[in-house]
Automatic annotation (TrEMBL):
Keywords: Metal-binding, Zinc, Zinc-finger
Any one Pfam family match given in the protein's UniProt record, by short name: RPA_interact_C
Domain RPA-interacting protein central: from-to ranges: 13-84
Classification of source organism: Eukaryota, Metazoa, Chordata, Craniata, Vertebrata
Stored PANTHER family: RPA-INTERACTING PROTEIN, RPA-INTERACTING PROTEIN RPAIN
Protein name, UniProt field: RPA interacting protein
A GO MF label: zinc ion binding
The RPA-interacting protein C-terminal domain, residue ranges: 93-174
């Protein structure tokens, strides 16, 4: 598309739509001049004023579409960033309820099902360490027995409760934490 003399700053698409509309009007009324006169858009006819108003509406609509697209793009970028950040975090499903993710920090591990173990007295209990402990105990059990073990919390007289793994079929019992 060519820019009209003394251009209005309208985008190429808006100009193209305007030219198509004007050409359609010219085919109905042969007396209408060219859309772009020597000083830009001719203003001799009421039709030109209407077309100018349509052009403004089209440009306004185009800007709202662009703004909406930019908002959606920003939202998608934020969503993708949060998903990627979430992938960095290790999620360990509670071995007691098998439904919720454990909350693990330097002082305790807990679950909304009621599991709470104070880890302050045990050094370096991170999600990685806990996952390795759980995997090691399950693997150790699975070497001799193919049944699913269960996890439970057993009181400890010296400190906070222990997380235990046991199997009623093979009488396996071990402290995980």
């Amino acid at each position: 598309c060519r820019d009209p003399p003394g251009g209005t700053g309208a985008s190429a698409i808006v100009q193209e739509v305007m030219e198509e509309e004007w050409t359609a009007l010219q085919s109905e009324d042969r007396r209408l001049p060219s859309l772009w006169g020597p000083h830009g858009m001719a203003e001799e006819y009421d039709e030109l004023a209407v077309l100018e108003e349509i052009q403004q509406e089209l440009m306004s609509h185009e800007m709202s579409i662009i703004e909406e697209f930019e908002r959606n793009l920003q939202f998608e970028q934020q969503y993708i960033s949060s998903v990627v950040e979430g992938m960095d975090e290790m999620h360990i499903i509670c071995p007691i309820c098998h439904m919720n993710n454990l909350s693990i920090n330097s002082h305790f591990l807990s679950c909304t099902c009621g599991l709470y173990i104070n880890t302050k007295v045990r050094l370096n209990i991170s999600p990685d360490v806990l996952q390795r402990l759980l995997e090691a105990r399950v693997s150790e059990h699975m070497e001799d027995c193919l049944h699913n073990p269960v996890f439970s919390v057993a009181p400890n007289a010296d400190s906070s409760p222990n997380l235990m793994i046991s199997c009623q079929v093979c009488d396996y019992l071990s402290i995980v934490l």
